[in-house]
Model the fold of this input.
Amino acid sequence: MHPSITFSGTTLHLLPEKAIWIAETSTLLIADLHFGKAAHFRKSGIPVPEPIHLHDLQCIKELIGKYTPTDFYVLGDLFHSDWNERWDHLNSYLSSFVYTRFHLVKGNHDVLAPIAYKQSLFEIHEKPVELGNLFLTHEPAEKIPEGKLNLCGHLHPGVRLRGKGRQSLRISCFHLGENQLILPAFGRFTGLSLVKRKPNDQIFGISGEKVIKILSHE
Done:
C-alpha cells in the first residue's frame, strides 16, 4: 500500500515509480522526464548510452498498463533540449496507448519548435493548468490560487539519509509543503537537489519499490 495525501477531498497516491495517481479522475502525473538528454550529450561528444531512456519508457508502459489512466500529465521538461530523433521515437512509442490522453505543461527545457509540438500527440499547455483543486505547473508557483494545491517539478528533490558510521545514501523524494507538492524527477538521467525542509514540511523518500515518510534527514 503506497502512502497518499488527501487535499480537499482529492487523494493523491505517491508511487515508487516517481509518479502520482489520482483514482477519482483517472489521472497519472510525472515531472522531468528529460527524454532525449542522452542523444543531446552525444551530439556534444559525451558518450551516454541510450538504454538509460529505454528504462524510462518501459516504466511509463508499466504505469499505464497498471492504472489505465484517462489522462497522463507531464509537469514540464518532457524533452531535454532541441530536436533530435528521440522526439519522434517518444511520440511513436506513446501512440500505442490509444485510450490515454497525454498532456505537457511546458517547462524551461521544452524548447522545440512550435511545429514539433503541433504534430505531436501531446496536448500542450503553455500556462498553468487548474485541474479541480490542483494547480499544475513546472516550476514551483510563487502565487498559488486560494484553495489549490500546486503540483510541480523542476527541482529534482532528493534527501540524504545517514546510516551507521559514515554511510550515507541520496534518494529521490516527494516534498510536501503547506499548499505545494514537488514531484521527484521521473527520468533516470537527471540528478538530485537536496531539499531544504521547513518545520511543517513532509518528505516522502523513494527507496526501491517503496515510498516511505522521512522523519529526519540531513
The longest strand covers residues 168-176. The mean pLDDT is 88.
